[in-house]
Amino acid sequence: MWNPQDFEQRYSPKTVSDIVFAEDRSRSLIDQLISGQRPFPMAEDKCGILLYGIPGTGKSALAKLLPDAMEMARSGNETGIDCVYQRVRPGNNGMTMLEKIGNHAIHTPYQASQHYYVLDEVDNLNAQAMDVLKSVMNTRGCVFILTTNHLDKVELGVRSRCHCIAFNAAPAEKWLPLARRIMADAGLHGISDQQLVAVIQTGKGSARDIKDALIDVVLEALAVQP
After folding, report:
1. Residues 80 and 95 in one domain
2. Are residue 132 and residue 74 in the same domain, yes or no?
3. pLDDT in tens, 31-82
């Protein structure tokens, strides 16, 4: 049954499995990092995950899901107070934020197996703050999850400490499971996969625009129903 009030709750990603990846290789690397199959984090080595690519492809959604996914794989619990999320605002150099993160990393006792720091839109840090971030990332027992639409604006030393994972437009076919689910929940069963792919392609890889295009299909179909 179509219920626009719960659309966000119903169709927003709840687990990493709900994320639409452009490449199977990227999904495989994320799975290895979550499960611990690939050694991670390693102090003064690879201790970060940097998700980069065009806007709207799910980088922020995945970044928010990764800490609990990793912690559940390691301890069976959620991260709780050991996860710090920060959206880096334009014009905010980030020095105060990074000082707080540095103090938290060093002085806060672990409740989870390690500390997790999510910095969304990390490219908004200025050059001085990037240097501080690079230093803070050397702290043992910490995972840094970063997102950016502009990989070239992230300092090379920060990049080298991260598994850099491209997050660009996924093939339209990979969105079909979600599209079919939305149509089925709305009681629409006569729309072919070919038609859905054509709708999905109008979103040009943006999860926001793809879902909005699918909403258009639902509303147009419901408007002509008796």
Report:
1. yes
2. yes
3. 999 999 999 999 889 999 999 999 999 999 999 999 999 999 998 988 887 8
Rounded to two decimals, the pTM is 0.92
On whether both 43 and 139 belong to a single domain, the answer is: yes
Give the residue numbers spanning the domain of 63.
21-166
The residue out of 124, 145, 166 marking a domain boundary is 166
CA neighbor of 72 nearest in space, from 39, 38, 41, 34: 34
**C-alpha distance from residue 95 to each of 28, 65, 91 (Å):** 34, 25, 12
C-alpha to C-alpha distance for 88 and 94, rounded to whole angstroms: 7
Q: What is the spatial distance between Cα 175 and Cα 124, in angstroms, rounded to a whole number?
A: 30
Judge if 31 and 75 occupy the same domain. Answer: yes
CA count, 13 A, side-chain hemisphere, 173: 1
Q: How far apart are CA 125 and CA 89, in angstroms?
A: 8
- 81-117 residue pLDDT tens: 789 999 998 866 688 889 889 888 887 787 778 999 9
**Whether 78 contacts 71, CB under 8 Å:** yes
Residue 188 contacts residue 218 (beta carbons within 8 Å): yes
- Do the Cβ atoms of 138 and 43 come closer than 8 Å? yes
- Where among 150, 166, 182 does a domain terminate? 166
Verify that 25 and 137 share a domain, yes or no.
yes
